[in-house]
Amino acid sequence: MTLFIEHQQLKIRRFVDEDKNDFISLVQHPLCMKYSMTGVLSEPQASKFFDTLMHNKKHKMYAIEEAETGLVIGCTGLQDCFIEEDLCIVFTLRLLPEFNQHQDLHPALKQLIEQLSSLHQLPKLQAVVAKKNQFIMQLLADLSFEKIKIVTCRGIDSYLYQTC
């Protein structure tokens, strides 16, 4: 099954080679990566990360594209994350801050969460969010995630969220 979502002005789709420059700009944006476990990536790190994403057979990250311009404004999907000592699969989202309030973000992500759960046969999705990341915490609440507990992920105090 190929995952593709289009909701009015946003598309969520597989990355293609032509997205590399947009992806590098995304993961080098200080506000976009402010609460990321890795922080802002250098150009070589970002390039290597993109190549890894393109060839990852286990989990997929997807491009969030503004349909009108074709600009990749974010990435989302599933990734492995160590929560305390356990390896877990978590939902992740990186978005250019000027698109945080995009009118189509919630409906597109809602569809994505449903498709990811079905595609990967996950009864519930989890997400780990740094305690200071108010935007993502509110977004997850709006997307029917609930805060489960306080966790440490890569040394950062965070919350574990789970779909209801």
Question: Please, could you describe this protein's structure?
Answer:
This protein is α+β, with helices and mostly antiparallel strands and 164 residues long. It has one domain: 3-Layer(aba) Sandwich (Aminopeptidase), CATH 3.40.630. The protein contains four helices and eight strands; from the N terminus they run ββααβββαβαββ.
Can you give me a brief rundown of this structure?
By secondary structure, this protein is of the alpha+beta class.
Descriptive key words:
164 residues; Aminopeptidase; 4 helices; 27% helix
Sequence-ordered SSE layout with sheet pairings:
Layout: E1 5-7, E2 10-14, H1 20-27, H2 43-55, E3 61-66, E4 72-83, E5 86-95, H3 105-119, E6 126-130, H4 134-142, E7 145-153, E8 156-163
Antiparallel strand pairs: 1-2, 2-3, 3-4, 4-5, 6-8, 7-8
Helix pairs in contact: 1-2
Helix content: 25-40%
Kindly report the spatial arrangement of strands forming the biggest sheet: 1-2-3-4-5
Shape: globular
Distance between the termini: 24 Å
CATH superfamily: Gcn5-related N-acetyltransferase (GNAT)
Largest sheet entry: 5 strands, antiparallel
| Domain tally | 1
Mean pLDDT: 91
Assigned CATH class: Alpha Beta
Number of helices: 4
Number of DSSP strands?
8
What structural class should be given to the helix and strand makeup? alpha+beta
